[in-house]
Amino acid sequence: MIMEVPGGPPVLYQESKTRNAFLEQEDLDVHMLAWRRIEAVALCPDDSVARIAAADLH
What we know:
Elements: E1 2-3, E2 11-15, E3 20-23, H1 25-41, H2 45-54
Antiparallel strand pairs: 1-2, 2-3
């Protein structure tokens, strides 16, 4: 989760079964790049709903 605090830099909080951590700017940059790449190829909400509805899940 990326948390944005007014007046401060964004912070990346990462939680898993074995550890929780607040990560530094370098880690945040890597995660932000990955998120931008995902957003670039993601379908819009309406297209996502149509794709799921059209899927044969049986």
